[in-house]
Amino acid sequence: MTFLTVENIHHTYFTKTSATTALSNISLTVEEGEFVSLLGPSGCGKTTLLSIISSLLKPTQGTVLLENKPVTTAKNQIGYMLQQDYLFPWKTIEENILIGLKLSKQLNQNTKAAALRLLNQIGLAGVEKQLPRQLSGGMRQRVALVRTLATEPKLLMLDEPFSALDYQTKLKLEDLVSQTLDEFGKTAILVTHDIGEAIAMSDRVFLLSPSPGRIYKTFTMPEELRNISPFEARNHAAFSSIFQTIWKELESLEREKE
Amino acid sequence: MSEKKNKPELLHKNYIQSLKIEKRWVGFYQAIIFIVFFSSWQLASQKQWIDPLLFSSPSKIWNLLLEKIQDGTLVSNIGVTLTETVFGFILGTLLGTILAAILWWSPMISRVLDPYLVILNAMPKVALGPILIVALGPGYSSIIAMGAIISIIITTIVVYTSFKEVDPNYLKVLQTFGASRWQCFKEAILPASFPTIISTLKVNVGLSWVGVIVGEFLVSSRGLGYMIIYGFQVFNFTLVFLSLLVIAVFATIMYQLVELLEKKIIKE
Lengths: 258, 268
Ligand SMILES: Nc1ncnc2c1ncn2[C@@H]1O[C@H](COP(=O)(O)OP(=O)(O)O)[C@@H](O)[C@H]1O
Ligand SMILES: [Mg+2]
Known about the structure:
Number of helices of chain B: 11
Mean pLDDT of chain B: 90
Oligomer: heterodimer
CATH architecture of the largest domain in chain B: Orthogonal Bundle
CATH topology of the largest domain in chain B: MetI-like fold
Largest interface: A-B, 18 and 18 residues
Helix content of chain B: over 70%
Structural class of chain A: alpha/beta
Bound molecules: adenosine-5'-diphosphate, magnesium ion
Number of helices of chain A: 9
């Protein structure tokens, strides 16, 4: 059984002055436990696609099925982490990570303890009573990850989660996120415009072409890259050749535009 | 080594010291203005440079103050006006915020009501006084209504604008957890707008004093506004000035209290 099926998605944004077709004819499937990336230049509809998959946005056409059921019925099975952490500045870290459980009425001793344990695991023991502004960018992004994982979603979506961080923090977080997701056996979709990040973290990479966004090519990562951490993958011999391949495809996309 | 370490500390001490001295000078000049103003008023009145019947004098006001405190009328009048003002401005802020919440809740209602809000905001609310008196009767309720109505519309507009300006990504976060519209309001919209609501509170203190004093001009037989009108009618301008000074003191105290509240809430 396919875990996630995205079928024939079209989406057009309407405004008073224009109609922008953001996505056209998007179909893809994701298997349980798989980690896939959406790679593409900014404005090619990546965020739109994530919003549609998480049923925050109704597509003008097409269906999204999670375990063969429409996603609109699958509340709280999909976790969505935005580009910035968007921690609520007036809530403590503890209140922030428990908000999902509270809203979906799952907050009890067990789920609360699990969320706090996760915070510990991710290297943030002792910050529970602090406010988000007392934490660094990397720490805040980790809190946002804990907040997303606390409701135990089956599918995790990450929208350029590392793009606002400095390079070193980003590499460290890539490893941490990858390891955490492996431990929990989570299925994940990562949006990024960083080729290296897509290669290092995923099992498969979908390359999107812009205006309107469509799937241009799909790359399956070689076995030897999948089973190692993102940091190790970046240093692996197989990395640079696949980097070159994707780079060339992106270049040809650019040329096509001209 | 230790000298080097001490140097920044020393400089910091000097800096603090200079701030203190500056603050003292500011206080000194403020005191000078106060003293010069009241003593020249006193002098001008005594020497008949200004008409003492019209402009009274600080010493007469002081004597009247003591007299009115002793016979108890001042305290009861202050009590009346303060109560009306506090109710008026709490009601104004509360109703304004509730109205703003309704507008946020339904974009349709907000679009329909938009021109009416503009008209009501432009309208001088104190002109509604006579209508309120007819509708609510000449008593506390119409005075409190005056204190409230003067601030409701502007509160609605300011708070609604701040509701709309909350980063939509905060709502997106909540919606990914399946939050209802009410939950979005409670968890993100309202707390994010607290600073704005508090600052409208500050504006509303001043507005409510205007509303209540005008209301008392129109109907009351008690309160500071009534003292002013009464003093005017019997040509007792000492009473008018006394009331004005008392209003100035209490309006300032109320404003300071709200500012204190602001500091407390914003800190958290
Ligand atoms: N709410 C919206 N209204 C109108 N157009 C939009 C809206 N959101 C996105 N778009 C347009 O849709 C396209 C895809 O946007 P987006 O999904 O944010 O791309 P990406 O995440 O890949 O940068 C862009 O051209 C953008 O201008
Ligand atoms: Mg985006």
